[in-house]
Amino acid sequence: MGKYLLRLLFVNVLFILFVAGNAHAQKIVTLNDTITQHYFSFNEIETLEDKSGKLTLDQIRNDSSVSSAFKPSEIFNPKVTDLNTIYWYRIKINHDKATKNNWLLEFFDQTTDDIEIFSPNADNTYSSTHMGSSLPFSQRLFQHKNFSLNINSNLYGEHTYYIRLKSHQPANVIVVLRSVSWFVHYALDEYFFFGVFYGMLLVFSLYNLMMFFAIRQIQYLYYIMYNLSIGLYEMCADGIAYQYLWPNSPVWNQYAYGVALFFASIFGMLFTRSLLYVKVKAPKLNTLIWLVIGLRTIFFILCLTVDNNWFNYRIVEIVPLLLACYTGYYILNKGYWPARFFVVGYSFLFIGFLIKILIAFDVSWLPFGPITHYSLSFCFIMEMLFISFAIGEKVRILKKKKDYAQRRIIRQMKQNEEFKDNLNRQLEAQVRERTKELVEKSAVIEEQNEELKSVNILLKDQAEEISRINVLLEKDNITLHTNIEKVTHDRVMSAQVDFEEFSRIYPDRETCFKFLSDLKWEKGYNCRKCSNDHYSHGHLPYSRRCSKCGYEESVIAYTILQNTRIPINKAFYMIFLMYSTKGKISSHKLSEIVAIRQSTCWAYSTRIKKLMDHKKKELSNAGSKGWSMLVIEEQ
After folding, report:
1. Can you say whether residue 268 is alpha, beta or left, with left for phi > 0 and alpha for psi between -120 and 50 degrees?
2. Which candidate in 24, 109, 163, 286 could, as Cys together with 89 as Cys, close a disulfide (CB 3.0–4.6 Å)?
3. Dihedral of CA 229/247/165/54: which sign?
4. How confident is the model over 362-367, as a mean pLDDT?
5. HEC string for 469-496
6. Higher model confidence: residue 535 or residue 255?
7. Phi first, then psi: what are they for 458, rounded to 5°?
């Protein structure tokens, strides 16, 4: 019994060692006409990270230390995770003489920047082929969204293919071996379904555009922009955009998908708040939506201006997606029934997004294939379908409310009509009664009219007398007003007048300017530059512009007020005080009276004294108006 157990243990150990040894051996894929395609996965594809970026094909092939560094893929498809590293991949294909098909290698991830494939030749040399989204689309061997390479049909036996890959964003290294006939069939079917998918996007967009023109609600424009953004993102992810939109501008491949995702998130949230009346039904969620829109916009600007590689953090899109889902669920609980279709549609979208996340995290139980690869596109279609149901349900509710409102309006109009008829009957009866009363009173009114006529004649005579009295009073008022102005002016011009009384004559800057204008040009205008006597009004108040040379002279130019910063009415008062006191008032007293600094009063009073000395003879017999002669300086 013990020998049997030892023998069994020995056999199991040998089996484990054998399996372990074969687990690290690279599996060779044989060209077989019984199958149409084959995905390289796990130990069928080996990986080497070239962090230095300097390894050559000769080193990869001939240097045993480098060649032995290749490791089998531990996941279904290898991934590019370090964006600063060049990755080498190695696959082995057995070229069977019995195969009659032509074969090609195809690379699925269209966002990969640079792919260099080293294909073996019959003379044991290698040919290099460059592919990638960084090259113009016209340089591709096949005008197809995926990167494809013909396999030499003249090779026989086992051959190794080397792939050198560099990408600016995380990429799935999906390498597929396909027969050319199957590739043509598959490509036609794929482009047909692409046409259906993008056609549905356009149909939904045109439908909502017509709804916008019919109903004029902004939500339809938001949904159109959301659909077009989703379409652009899918075209970027599928490589369709590169093929048809910007085939000669590879630089757009670096961030076009990020721009599309940004607009999809923004217009998706704007559509959510508009469709579900979030501002009214959930004000806090409305504030949160605007906050997320702002933060997402800031992140987008940083991606554009700081580092385009930040567009790779597509996981951020789960925030607006979850917010939209939660908003729909919250509004549904509030009793708004169109939200149920919205919740179902965004649930599909969330499932598709979740599948993409699981694929990105290499979940082993999730198989790779067309279903998982195009799951997000399918979920987008389902989301559009249910969102259309939600919009239709909203329109149905609006129509129902409109019909109900119309029925109420019709009922109200009938009630108004009945009320109007009753009111008209009552008014007719009252009119008849009132007419009867008026007929009875007309005789009395005629008698009263005769009395009023006689009274009117008397009033007319009295009115004429009053008019004559008013004319006399008006003349007296004019004479009195003139006398008051003269007394006021004489009072102001006396030496004892204070600033308040002085300001009655010159209350503001406008009055002072008018006085200066009349004083300065009382003998007529003559241009100081060309002696022309015709002028027009200048830009400044009361200034005059020569009609010939265009020279403009301000009202304070060539006066004692030029270049002074004192308020003009206070400057007038200082000139008046200096003149009335014959220059004997001190600068301290002036400062106290006009509330201006003593140093300023001293400088200005000194200037006035000099002018008074200069015009001493002219001022000797000037009287009360002599102070105005100090305003104009002789030039």
Report:
1. alpha
2. 163
3. negative
4. 58
5. HHHHHHHHHHHHHHHHHHHHHHHHCCCC
6. 535
7. -65, -45
d(CA 595, CA 611): 23
> How far is it, in rounded angstroms, from Cα 141 to Cα 147?
8
The structural domains of the chain, ordered by start, are 24-186 (2.60.40.2380), 217-399 (no CATH), 499-523+557-630 (no CATH)
Distance CA 440, CA 442 (A): 6
- SS3 label, residue 104: strand
- What lies within 8 Å, CB to CB, of 65 at 6+ separation is none
Q: Are strands 79-80 and 147-150 parallel, antiparallel or unpaired?
A: unpaired
Contact 330, 282 (CB under 8 A): yes
**Closest Cα partner for 234 from 270, 196, 181?**
196
- CA–CA gap between residue 117 and residue 138 (Å, rounded): 18
CA angle 262, 110, 120 (to 5 degrees): 160
Q: E strand or H helix at 517, and its extent?
A: helix 509-520
Secondary structure of 176-216 in the HEC alphabet?
A: EEEEHHHHHHHHHHHHHHHHHHHHHHHHHHHHHHHHHHHHC
Task: Name residue 532's amino acid.
Answer: N
Structure tokens at 323: 């917010």
Q: How far is residue 47's CA from residue 164's CA, in Å, rounded to a whole number?
A: 10
pLDDT of 124-158, one tens digit each? 889 999 888 888 888 888 888 888 888 888 888 88
Give the pLDDT confidence of 301-351 residue by residue, as tens digits.
998 888 877 887 788 888 888 888 888 888 888 888 778 888 888 888 778
Laid out side by side, the sheet with 535-537 consists of 535-537, 544-546, 552-553
Encoded amino acid at 462, one letter: Q
Q: What average pLDDT does the segment 12-19 reach?
A: 36
Tokens of 151: 């396999």
538: CB partners within 8 A, 6+ apart: 544, 545, 552, 553, 554
pTM for the structure as a whole: 0.55
Residue listed under structure tokens 């040379």: 549
Residue 346 has, within 13 A of its CA and on its CB side, a CA count of 24
Q: Output phi, psi for 199, to 5 deg.
A: -65, -40
Task: Determine how many CB atoms are found less than 10 A away from the CB of residue 571.
Answer: 23
Burial class (CB in 10 A: 0-12, 13-18, 19+), 624: middle
Rounded Cα distance between 336 and 218, Å, is 19
Residue 352 has, within 13 A of its CA and on its CB side, a CA count of 21
Tokens linked to 331: 């509004």
C-alpha distance from residue 62 to each of 47, 68, 181 (Å)? 17, 10, 36
pLDDT at 22: 40
Cite the DSSP H helix spans in 34-151: 57-62, 64-67
Paired tokens of 277? 């009346």
DSSP string, 349-363: HHHHHHHHHHHHTT-
Nearest-5° angle of CA 288, CA 291, CA 293? 110
Instruction: Say which DSSP state 133 is in.
Output: T
Element (H, E) at 105: strand 103-107
